[in-house]
Design brief:
alpha/beta, AB_hydrolase_fold, EC 3.1.-.-, hydrolase activity, eight-stranded mixed beta sheet, FrsA_esterase, single chain
Length: 239
């Protein structure tokens, strides 16, 4: 009996050597695939475990890298890298396309059935792939209510689901309004789930290093958000 397997993959993006985590489901035939983006700190065991869980559900999953194999536990260092990145759609798209190329060239991937799921900065990367017209079956984000360049959301070709905590000061109500207005004006099939009482990065287990203000884990909503992601994939990646 075969089981889920994993391997590390290296590839170039944003002038760095990225180190991603690829999880493959049991079996030998092509399977739907998921590109999984991390929070701004970068790829960690949290995203690796999520990729593994998706592989157990039958998906090829690539948890991609943001910082050349580094995890940025210092909030100032993280912001110094992520804020310019979030302000540069072309850089985000470059990071996303490089990871997507790795996923597409994996023999187990069905290239006609790929979704992008991301958290924070990794979610913004997924949204920029959509705004760049990439053929995705779904885009799902948590803590990533980023808006794009005017008019480019009309190039999104798939449903978009977004989740956010009601008390998230980083993705505040004004940001929610701007994001949903962009999606609606572009004719996107969009949904927004607001998790009551949750802060920014509510889905992420507690960490043993300083964080930016407004971050906090919410165990119940973390489980609910994961179920919402799994439901989105089941809906959009089915045969």
């Amino acid at each position: 009996m075969t089981t889920m397997t994993t391997r590390t993959v290296e590839y170039s993006a944003d002038g760095l050597t990225m180190i991603g985590h690829l999880a493959l489901p049991a079996g030998v035939g092509p399977r739907p695939a998921v590109l999984l983006g991390p929070e701004g700190m970068g790829l960690s065991d949290v995203e690796r475990r999520r990729a593994d869980a998706l592989a157990e559900l039958g998906y090829v999953a690539l948890a991609f890298d943001l910082h050349g194999g580094r995890y940025l536990s210092d909030p100032e260092e993280m912001l110094a890298r992520c804020l310019p990145l979030l302000a540069d759609p072309d850089r985000m798209r470059g990071i996303g396309h490089a990871a997507l190329d790795v996923l597409r060239t994996e023999p187990r991937t069905d290239p006609a059935r790929i979704a992008a799921i991301g958290y924070g900065t990794g979610g913004a990367v997924g949204l920029e792939l959509g705004r760049d017209g990439v053929d995705l079956r779904a885009i799902g984000t948590v803590n990533a209510l980023t808006t794009g360049r005017p008019g480019e959301a009309a190039r999104i070709r798939c449903p978009v689901w977004a989740g956010v905590g009601s008390e998230d000061p980083i993705m505040a109500p004004a940001q929610r309004t701007a994001f949903t207005a962009e999606m609606q004006d572009a004719g996107v099939d969009w949904r927004l789930t607001v998790y009551g009482g949750a802060l920014h990065a509510f889905h992420h287990p507690p960490v043993d290093h300083p964080t930016v203000p407004g971050v906090g884990h919410h165990p119940q909503h973390a489980q609910r958000a994961w179920r919402d992601v799994v439901d989105l994939l089941a809906e959009c990646l089915r045969q």
